[in-house]
Known about the structure:
The structure holds two protein chains of two kinds. Chain A is an alpha/beta fold. In chain A, 41% of the residues lie in helices and 19% in strands.
Amino acid sequence: MSAHEIAAGFMPLLDSAILVVAKAKGFAEDEGVALKLARESSWANIRDRLAVGHFQVAHMLAPMPIAGNLGLTPLPSRTIAPMALGLGGNAVTMSNALWARMLDHGARETLDAAANGAALAAAIRAVPEGRPRFAVVHPYSGHNYELRYWLAACGVDPERDIEIIILPPPLMTEALANGALDGYCVGEPWNTAAVMQGLGHIATVRASIWRSSPEKVLGVEERWAGDNPEALAALLRALYRAAIWCADPANREALSALMAEPAHVGLPAEWMAPALSGDIRVSSVDIVRVEDFFMPLARGATFPWKSHALWFYTQMVRWGQVAHSPGNEAIARETYRPDLYRSALKPLGAALPAANSKIEGALTAPTPVGASGATLTLGPDGFFDGGLFDPDKVDEYIRSERS
Amino acid sequence: MPSPGLAVLVIDENRVRASIIEQGLHEAGHERVTVIHDVNGLVRRIAEHNPDVIVIDLENPNRDRLEAMFQLSRAVKRPIAMFVDRTDLASIEAAVDAGVSAYVVDGLKRERVKAILDMAVTRFNAYARLTRELEEARGELEGRKLIDRAKSILMRSRNLSEEEAYRLMRKAAMNQNRKLAEIAESLITAAGLLEPGGAP
């Protein structure tokens, strides 16, 4: 079989697992894809190498291709997202000092976004002179929007009451240790890393702020995708099969070990385990069970929902990164390509949602939905504040967030 | 033509490479060149130097931070963007290939900046070549040491002259289509295993 040669960039994070497994466990090879993985040191590098053709595909922050297509980042090339690389997987970690202040205001070891958000708001109000400083990895990241959404819903103005800076994950734990940071929102294993080293405390997780929510996607250079539909379809099948492997509890230990290797994340396997098992170590003594902390497969985790793309777009508008217009909204919507996902995965008998969008936050319980192929169960997927996002009412949502 | 007057900030944790670039910029007539290795206090340093052009290596994990900083106009005095000349994708490709990127304040003439970027690319490539050659030399030296050691093992165990031991190893290398250093390495390992009491 003649192999499709595909070069993929990834960042050393746990949620690059699907790409790593596709290569390491032979799923890419089975599908006739000679997959070459390149570990990168910044999202900017990933974007640049995709633009100049070093990579055809890459592990990307879900809002990144949208921001690029909107012309918000340097050196953008048209990038599409035909697949998501899982749901959830990140958390908010506080310095020990800030967590101690939050405890005085009712914070609990439950990871509950509402209770701990209220405690954080109270702690900030109690010391109005010192603005806490938080970090996220990128302005166009799920972490940035998730942190801001959470804080805003708890009555903290992310622009005025705190400061948010951009910092690469390996520098975050260090900054927490030396007092340069009070907290951060980042993907695993960087929250666990702080806890394991006694530097911080996990206050809440993505799954508590917005359950079943998107985090990374497979970004694909649009022109390459157009010229190589078979190669892309083969890769998507390999990734889907890798996602099935990642989701199997029997493979957890092997996956922790694989991701711990120097060529992948290059950090201890014990730091990978909590996100994969859902037994989150929130402090040196407490473990809190979060069933859906990181989901590589369940609840349609790899489907590129256009409602996810549009929600990210509303947040870009909300925080002043882009002006709202029908044209910009269309760019965001068209960046995600469920059509390519469906056509690629049909031969596998995978569960394929009939719709391209869903109302985000509407499912309070696991719900079977219309799908072809295998049965598909979605949800629960609520926002912690009970908010709903209807992708058909983008204008209304943007207006409601302004008030 | 040199373009004096431009303030250039080089951010590179690799001191040797940074000084190679600095030297190149000086040779090209740039007087206002600052090199920083440590990215702590980056915002302050940028505000202090107020650079027209920033050159940064692609291994640096702080690129995302830097770009975000440029987007916030209050962090820097003038708007800075990545050097992108759409008419010349080849030069961007060459830069990414070499592992370097440049950011430029708005409104600078492209010819002035392109010369700086081209110089950085050349110097980055020269540095990469130098490191590669050094590694090869190190490998060669290592190989020569192995061969000497294997030779003396053979001389001792089979009572051969130096010349005979060398010829024997070379013959084995040719027959097995392997490098002489590889033969030497297996011979040393084997001798270590056979020797009473373990490694030689």
